[in-house]
Amino acid sequence: ALGIDPQEAGRLGLAIFKVAMPWPLEPQAIRDFCTGLERVLVIEHKRPLIEEQLRSVLYRLPDSQRPYIEGKFDRDGKRLLSDIASITIPEMAAALMQTIPEGWDTSRATAYFDRVGRAGEAARSNATPTVRTPHFCSGCPHNTSTVVPEGSRALAGIGCHYMANFMPDRHTDMTSQMGGEGIPWIGQHWATDEPHVFVNLGDGTYSHSGSLAIRAAVTSGATMTYKILYNDAVAMTGGQHVESGQTPAQIAQQVRAEGVRTIVIVTEDTTRYANVKGLPGGVKIYDRDDMEDVQLALRDTPGVSVIIYDQICATEKRRRSKRGLRAPDRTRVIINTEVCEGCGDCSVKSNCLSVEPVETDLGRKRRINQSTCNTDLSCLKGFCPSFVTITDGEAAWEDQERPAFSADGLPLPETPSLAQPYNVLFTGVGGTGVTTVAAVLAMAAHVDGHAASSLDMTGLAQKGGPVLSHIRFAREPDQISTGRVPPASADVVIACDLVVAAGGDALNLMDADRTAAYANSDVTPTSEFIRNRSKRFESDLLSARVKRQATEFDTFDAEALAMGYLHDAIYTNMIMAGFAWQRGRLPVSLRALYRAIRLNGTKVDDNMAAFNIGRIAAADPDRLIRQQDPRGDVPEQTLEELIEDRAARLTGYQNAAYADRYRDIVAKVRAAEKPISTDGKLTRAAAFYAYKVMAYKDEYEVARLYTDGKFAKQLASQFKGGKLRFWLAAPMIAKKDADGHLEKKHFGPWMLLGFKLLAKFKGLRGTKLDLFGYTEERQHERKLRDDYLAGLERITSELTEKNLELAIAIARVPDDIRGFGHVKDDALQAAKVKEAELWKGWPEGKLPTTKTTLIAAE
Ligand code: SF4
Ligand code: SF4
Known about the structure:
The protein contains 31 helices and 23 strands.
């Protein structure tokens, strides 16, 4: 970085001693090295372990031979290097600059600091605010087990459940060391009015040392509930067996022996306990649906109580199923996209990342990502009639014919020179195989006879978090002094995930004069989507951030190609590698790459194919058939298209007269807007939302949307055969839960016939014979429709240039009203308040003062 070569270092009197073992420091060699030096600068990450030992080792040297020791502080006592974090290369370089005597050419050092300064500034000012926070795997038992009742909180522990810390709704914090779970509460409970806490404790930790924490807690007399999260694996570190191999019954016996009086077991399948022997007396078994009630009861139980939450780790379940160690789950879920309202209730209830957004002409809806779903089925708790389960269906997508392609005759690019170390950065989502592709590239370098190092910054990121894989190539191993790509030194960034690539950590490694960047334009939703149903992941905005830091930038939908050509998103990363190679940005030969893929030994043909698809995408994309983005790829409809599309839908919904009513009101809005504005925003909003409120999804409509052929097509694209079950809360017969909400029940395949019949009676809608129309929900929906259309009438008669913006805001209010039953009703109440607030400024055009801050959607 500073441009000091070994000769110059010799001239300046600089020498380096690399400590092999930091503690205990071998005294003789280091004393010999330091004797007679003027100054020693100790560079070590975090605490001054070496520095303090060095002081004592050199203490007895005569004054004339004992150097000044600097490190965490300089000789004047000013802070030089951090003692709490890893030290970056620019920090080291800056410390060295202060220490090296004058009289050397600092121009390269100055240029270096300019370069890293620019990269650092970009990382600060240009980084996306969107963060890829690690999250439980799809179907993880902790999605349910770590929920706490309102008014309670939980103390965190070590294990995957630690991620509850990142989820605001889990009210979980204060992580302890392994075996210390809940111990802070032993000291705290005396000094607070808070009567109780929950404590999360994994089964691996329980076996390791957590049982001792429970013993201490019992002795202390504190009131607390341990949730022993029995997922039958040490999941966070890769699914190892729990050493003790204790069963839930044995854990229950042990905690009873420790003095815990109240012990319950909660599980997703109570039938597993039908013949279980050895449970201590009084231990009750509950279904996970009762988790809330169980927790409410235990938080009022004095002393230490224990919930053993028994549900296998979802990833381990998938692994065991693949290896034939357990029968795969037979039931999968599909969401009828036409029925879905995009309310997000299923995401909130399941906390599951496999419930993904899918963009449609009617707005954002939900779909189940069948590749990542681990069939936990808790999304079924989403309150709507969109959910269907299929038992014993075959995955249709696996049998679909793969499109043919050929990479024959593609030009062979010149590969980059290795005169200097060459730096590659992969950015990706944890758990999607980025690190494997990085390892394959490093292996290819070895096959070529070159040196390569591969360093993965992952940690908890394996669980859907950000992954940065640093790969460094060189002719000789000793040219690679550090595994990390230094700041402003990436030669190429392969952005398998744009959110990570546009983050500060990645931007800091890029240099606008050096780095080429290639990005997968498909953005996998982050966990924020679970809490914010409107969260947008705008590929273009993220791309712009990366592009600003790159000398060359290109983007394409690698995930759509992976899905379309190889039926698995896992190949996205290898496609990206192929793309970068074909652009001449990877310093490995084609022969070595193919060999490395073979040596990797997993899905060799498919990985070869993926690499070649990437090459074609880079060199001759017209050879590939454009593939549909599974999360929706809908071009915006023109206003005419939008109006006609909705009118046609309303004809199907009710009849042509109903569609004409729609056309009339939209035409009125259009006529009123035309003299004022040409962008048609108001008309578009009215066309969109007038349809939404007119086509409210009552029983006839849901029945029609299951039988008009679209659902059959959606189903056939995903499954073959199998027994269908429809999950519905039929208003006339459904029971109510403790909150007064209707409970969903499943209905067999005969329901399709029922739907067919019901759909035929849509003509009764709104008449005296419409039995469903008498429910409160339908009355609210009709009123919403009529009020909204009346509101549009008023807008058309009083519209001015001044109140146009307010008119658009009013016309968009129904966007917030989504879902079914109590979910929709809650949304409706909130929307009414907002609408009333907006109307207060009408017709003057005064917008409410509390404006929402608009942050660029990404
Ligand atoms: S590895 Fe298992 S326990 Fe850990 S987050 Fe994934 S599903 Fe949950
Ligand atoms: S309507 Fe709501 S709960 Fe139902 S599938 Fe759609 S987003 Fe999920």
